[in-house]
Predict the 3D structure of the following.
Amino acid sequence: MNIHINRFLTILLISILMVACHAFNEENATLIRRTPSITPDYKEVTVPVNMAPLNFVIDEPGAFFQVKLTGENNSQIRITSSNGKIKIPISKWKKILTDNTDGRIKVEVFTKENNRELKKFAPFHINIVKEEIDSYLVYRLIHPGYYNWSEIKIVQRSLENFKTHSLLENQTINKNCINCHAFNQNNGDQFLIHIRGSHGGTYFMDKDKLSRHDLKTDAMPGSATYPTWHPSGEFVAFSSNQVRQNFYSQRSKSIEVYDLISSLILYDRSSNEITNITDTNTATPLQTFPSWSPDGKYLYYCDATFCDSVNLAVDATDIENIHYNLKRRAFNIKDKSFKEPELIFDAAAINKSVSFPRISPDGKYAIITVTDFGTFPIWHKEADLHLINLENGEHKKLALNSDETESYHSWSSNGKWIVFSSKRIDKRAAVPFFSYFESWETIGKPFALPQKDPALYNHMLESFNIPELVRNKVNVTSRNFEKAVKQSAKKAKKEQGLENIPQWTKRNKEAKRSHLEKGIHE
Amino acid sequence: MNNIKHIKFGYRLFLVGYILIFGYYYWLGDYIFAFQENSFLLVWTPEYLIPFLLKPGGILELAGKILTQLYMNQFIGSLILSGIIILPSVLLYSIDRKLNTDHFVFSGFIYIIPTALLMLLQTFYYHFMEYNIGINAILLYSLFSTHHYKKKKYYLPLIMLPLFMYVAGAYTLVFIGTCIVLCLTQQKKRGILRYFLVIILETVITIVAFQKYFFLQPYSQILKFPLPTLDIQEYKLLLFSLGAIIVLHPLLLKNNALKLALSKLRYFQGIALVFILLLTSAAMYRLYNPQVINVIKMQKLITEKKWDKVIDFHENEPSRNLIGQFFYNIALSETNQLCDRLFCGQQDFGPKSLVLPWDNEHLNWGAHFFYSIGLINEAHRWAYEEFIVYGAKPQNTTLLAKTNLINGNYARAEKYIRLLKHTFNYRKEGKELEALLENPKSIMSHSEFKRRMENLPKNQFFIQVSDPQNNIPLMLKDNIHNTQALEYQMAWYLLTKDVSSIIGNIDAFKKADYKALPTHIEEAILAYQNSTKKNVNLSEYNISEKTQENFRKYVSSFTRLKNDKKSLQSYLKKEFGNTFWYYFHFQ
């Protein structure tokens, strides 16, 4: 009986092997001159040696799929699939990357439809460079919505594999809204997060200690909003904004977010004191998106003149006339003083507007987001990333842009990688893309954050918001925040001598609608 | 022998009860199915199902959602809901039999109370299936515990308690209450105290462990989910009563002497049973709100795009509810009858029933207006906000797919279509929309989308959120052929009795290529001419003979009866209740 079973199994196995060999006999394959269509598009991209496997979906008809990855040293991986999803085993991927560092791997795709011939597509390549990317990406996972929100998470994702870890989930803090997170120079041990709602405040994480602060003082037009850490860790500059959003009627645009008032402030962590950076009358100009140079000697920011912001009836045309330039002010750490502003990039002169200046770790370059107007590029389809050479003032549009929005971006700690949000996949949800920054002349083709399920972006509705590269694992969880929200917020003091600054009041015209602009959890 | 007789009688009684309850839900209570099936979209994909497994009580909630999908079919829905509602009585009965193996006495009126209370709770249409399952879960676990308790296997229910808490969530706490009462009613006190302490300790440890190590829910969530949260006084009273019965039932069931005494009073049990049935019927009658039910039925018809049926429904059974009248006006707009038929249906809220204000209360309905006039971005926003706040529902997911198709965002539309395709009840609709996705040119010729694409705003403006009606003139500014917007604008004037604005905009109908003026516009013109004695520029239109004749009759009747105001209104309502003139004078 056993002999019969064994014989049967042997014949079955041989038959399967024969069919398989026949099905994927490369010699018999019909050559297709073009490369296969795959999502995400990983063709001819440049990846760091420590990147997780670039799993992808083959968007070609077929019932059987095979992918052959061949290194320059002839090392090889073969992956077969019946549904076109190619999931590369992580250990084999690591090995082929390591073996081919500063080289490239060839990717050959074979497909076969039922009862049809085997097709072999023209190969594409993946380039591998030795410059590693920071090991983690921290982003906010949120539905790209309007007024309301539901579940929001700050997630830490390992870029070397597919492991994720929630730093904070708002279900543990009564569904409060979680806003911007900011790290000091890619350091996972020092960061801050804003929370809006019943547990509102700015939460500072510093060497395992989480503390809650209330940074709003009378001298500020709004709460502390967009942050940037001074490299010393002693100061954090914020913009303080009264933000509004309007919705467009035509399908070409969706939302316009703008500031009624915005100014810059400096928070001194040791004295718990807020100082104004912007001059006293902050209704004009608008100043926002502060960003320190890595040496801490300059504060870069975006600056626009908004005519008579107190009485203006804001409409679509008014907003189109707001153009932000890139400026900077030298900072003296000893007396916390700023020198006169310097114009770095005159975007208004070319009818453009600048957001999110980010200075490279070596201080030589700035990457900015450029839009036609306004201050909130994530809802601007035309938003693109530009590169400025801070040594000679040259600027250029980066080749990594698409026809859809490219917005928030940050540098890796070694200055060789850029991560940025792009809406190129479904026009609404932002997905993190990475590009290799080789030099002023050369930037690698961008690639989407690889996922274990390569079809994830085809059905995922949420946005990856504010992608930040972080060197080390952030040791905080929702449990820590659950405790921290119970602390009473440490109220910041306003700088002495600022008592005579006019109180910021919301414009009367806006008071009526302000209640409409709150989400249901507020 | 006596026991067997009791048992047979009990089962017959439950069967009769089941049939009666089925009949009620099949013929009268079917609005529950329409509302609840439409309140959640169960998507059969891992990313939608896994979150249910990540919280205590999630499995119970999921079970409720799965059964609710079957509400799509009225017959199956009635079968399921009747079964779930009668089940607590059967379980209570079974527990009683376990507790009183030697001297079981059937007490029909006691067993029927949970079912009666559940039926009353179910009259609230927000009382979802998972709540009914929760009640049954408590009793099922009580039965399981009683069974093992009788066999002296105390440890099994204790061992399984954390698992039960994971499945049933906060309903476990009600079970703990039952357990405590059960312990207290036992005659043999030996070991009971220990059992009592162990179960309390185990519950506390389980809750702490769940919160600290297994799930991300805060304590408040673990202690409440998935218990009902409806904040209505009557509902809470009924719920607490049901909770009290479940917790205290061991006291009632254990007292066999009392039951025996009651059973000897021959007719007492029968009278008590009839009394409970009558009381339940009376309470159900009181809680039955035909206005709300009408709205739910109209909502179903709106979802199914059965515009003519919505119109007939409201004209035959007038809704006094803002949303009901809003639905009627939507159906009129979709069939281009807003200015011809507006007053054929009840209009109690003036222009408020044309455009709902932006707030969370109206989040699930308001998009229809914007979708009808072609302000697709705003329809998308309302649908999206609802999707975010209340989760995926058939209505919002479908609208998101459609608005993305109209706006040309096919990649995003595909994501919503995928959700529809992975459901029990909306797969077909998903596939129909998917077919459009494969051939985007067909969207332009699609019966539903063609008009909306033509009506899309031709100019860019910021949408007026706080005064949504102000978007209508902005829509008309550069698109005079948007007849839906035009009729909404005119309907606004009609309902605000702003006749001079109607007179000032008659040429808008000419520009929009109307062959004749709509009836209510003619009525407004005649009223204006009559009261001001001014000639109106009719832009080459004529007032129809029928309207003129009607107006003569109206004026004549008005003149004849003007001294008898009571008769005047009732007569004019009967004869001219569907005219602008009557609305102008009396509403």
Observations:
- The longest helix of chain A spans residues 2-23.
- Residues 30-129 of chain A form a domain with the Immunoglobulin-like fold (CATH 2.60.40.3760).
- The first strand of chain A starts at residue 30 and ends at 32.
- DSSP finds six helices and 37 strands in chain A.
